[in-house]
Write a structure and sequence with these properties.
Elements lengths: L2 E5 L13 H17 L3 E8 L4 H10 L3 H18 L6 E4 L6 H14 L3 E11 L4 E3 L17 E10 L5 H9 L4 E3 L1 H12 L5 E2 L1 E3 L9 E2 L2 E6 L1 H5 L2 H4 L7 H7 L4 E5 L3 H15 L6 E5 L2 E3 L14 H8 L1 H10 L7 E3 L1 H30 L2 E2 L8 H8 L3 H22 L6 H22 L4 H10 L2 E2 L11
Parallel strand pairs: 1-2, 1-12, 2-3, 7-13, 12-13, 14-15
Antiparallel strand pairs: 4-5, 4-6, 6-8, 9-11, 10-11, 16-17
GO molecular function: ATP binding; methionine-tRNA ligase activity
InterPro entries: aa-tRNA-synth_I_CS, Met-tRNA_synth, Met-tRNA_synth_2, Methionyl/Leucyl_tRNA_Synth, MetRS_core, Rossmann-like_a/b/a_fold, tRNAsynth_Ia_anticodon-bd
Protein name: Methionine--tRNA ligase
Length: 470
């Protein structure tokens, strides 16, 4: 059986999921469902990046012991996936000393044996929000452009990874598409960063600065492994690296990493270089999406504009949120969420578009006693092409063009005026088209797809509206 292994990014758990996070989860679930439809053996992994200083700071603010804080928040993140209808096969936590830590230490040793880890004293500006050092050139008015905070000047002796050694190899891999990066603007971003000159980066922290949490550096009890060198390994430790070689060999390399644009560099530069050093296969493709803003502003606790996906789903339903996120966020740019736009899309596309079409045809079929006797639906090849390119919004646009075309045809033909045999012919064609639309929507809107397929099998009857107007 063919296999497909994909991952979401591994979030910090210092905060809770907001509505913007759901974009990545729905993208991953849609890709996964498509490959399941094609009879692939699929595996979807996420996890929790728990060995970060920002987690310690958040736990102190909450007045909770760090492990208790991690247990509570990681559970919320894992449950959010399930609440959103996204089934994870694996949720690998960074604090897992049985499965994660042995793999991280094994990985460290492989890079060390290759001569790519050395120790030196270093001073630099460190952004806790990004969990990375910043150069003066990267700052805007002395502040981190992502977190709007002033980095802390850090001076200590740490271990470093020879990233500079892999500069030419990384350029070659990306330019030859051996490491595929989608979309192209994010690919060019990665290439531009690499070609500007790579510097070795720190991969450990003193126990004191790490506040005692994290994976110990093999052979040096005074140091912890840096959060990114640690957390990226979740993609492998979750599937057995360091503890179940058979499972690891079955699934690695990943077919697809899905991440946000803010962690492009870590996945397209650091991670491939680390894997090259360890002598391990690289992921096949990295998909990088933009942010979901709220009325043009970045969603953040400090701005006070956080909306939870749970609140949206409880008010409007799961699949309307799923549709909005997938249809309104082009893969190569940022999207925007507002309740005004959400309601507009809901009423226009779901209630008046898909829902109305299904109701119209079902009513005609019910009134004439029409029965579906053969199922010959097909998955739209144009949608399949767009989906393989991860152009989720364009794929859905193609489906809605089919919906509009059938709606227009009903208005033109006026089937309620047709003689019985002509009406049956029309309903036969229309039911095949609607079943094809439903099948094509199955990776995007699985519940809605199943409702339509069930309604349009056997004797068709009217049903409650798929999407009542709001």
């Amino acid at each position: 059986m063919k296999k497909f292994y994909l991952t979401t990014a591994i979030p910090y758990v210092n905060g809770l999921p907001h509505v913007g996070h759901s974009l990545e989860y729905f993208q991953a679930d849609t890709v996964r469902r498509y490959y399941q439809l094609k009879s692939y053996d699929t595996l979807l992994l996420s996890g929790a990046d728990e060995n970060a200083l920002k987690n310690v700071q958040a736990s102190e603010k909450e007045g909770l012991p760090i492990q208790q804080f991690l247990d509570i928040n990681s559970k919320i993140w894992a449950e959010t996936y399930e609440f959103l209808g996204v089934h994870l096969d694996i949720f690998q936590r960074g604090s897992d000393q049985k499965k994660h830590w042995p793999g991280v230490q094994k990985f460290w040793k492989l890079c060390q044996e290759n001569g790519d880890i050395y120790k030196k004293e270093y001073a630099g500006l460190y952004c806790i929000g990004c969990e990375s050092f910043k150069t003066n050139e990267e700052l805007i008015n002395g502040l981190c452009p992502t977190h709007q905070t002033k980095p802390e000047l850090i001076k200590e002796e740490n271990y470093f990874f020879k990233l500079s050694k892999y500069q030419d190899k990384l350029v070659q891999l990306i330019e030859n598409n051996e490491l595929k990066i989608t979309p192209d603007n994010k690919r060019q971003e990665a290439l531009s960063f690499i070609k500007s000159g790579l510097e070795d980066f720190s991969i450990s922290r003193s126990n004191e600065r790490a506040k005692g949490i994290g994976v110990p550096v093999p052979g040096d009890p005074d140091q912890k492994i840096y959060v990114w060198f640690d957390a990226l390994n979740i993609y492998m430790t979750g599937i057995g690296f360091g503890w179940d070689d058979i499972k690891y060999q079955k699934w690695w390399p990943a077919d697809l990493h899905i991440i946000g644009k803010d962690i492009n560099r870590f996945h397209t530069v650091y991670w491939p270089a680390m894997l090259l050093s360890a002598g391990l296969p690289l992921p096949k493709q990295i998909l990088i999406h933009g942010f979901v803003n709220l009325k043009g502003e970045k969603i953040s606790k400090s701005v006070g504009n956080v909306i939870s996906p749970q609140d949206v789903v409880k008010e409007f339903g799961l699949e309307p949120l799923r549709y909005f996120m997938l249809s309104q966020n082009p893969i190569d740019s940022d999207g925007d969420f507002t309740f005004e736009r959400f309601k507009e899309v809901y009423n226009g596309d779901l209630a008046n578009g898909l829902g109305n079409l299904v109701a119209r045809v079902a009513k005609l079929a019910e009134n004439s006693g029409f029965e579906v006797t053969k199922t010959t639906e097909i998955f739209d090849p144009l949608v399949e092409e767009k989906l393989k390119e991860f152009k989720f919004n364009e794929a859905l646009d193609a489906v809605w063009q089919d919906i509009a075309a059938l709606d227009k045809k009903i208005n033109q033909v006026e089937p309620w005026k047709l003689e019985a045999n002509k009406l049956e012919e029309f309903l036969s064609e229309s039911s095949v088209k609607i079943r094809s639309i439903a099948l094509t929507l199955s990776p995007f809107l699985p519940e809605t797809s199943q409702k339509i397929l069930k309604q349009f099998s056997g004797k068709i009857q009217s049903a409650p509206p798929l999407f009542p107007r709001i």
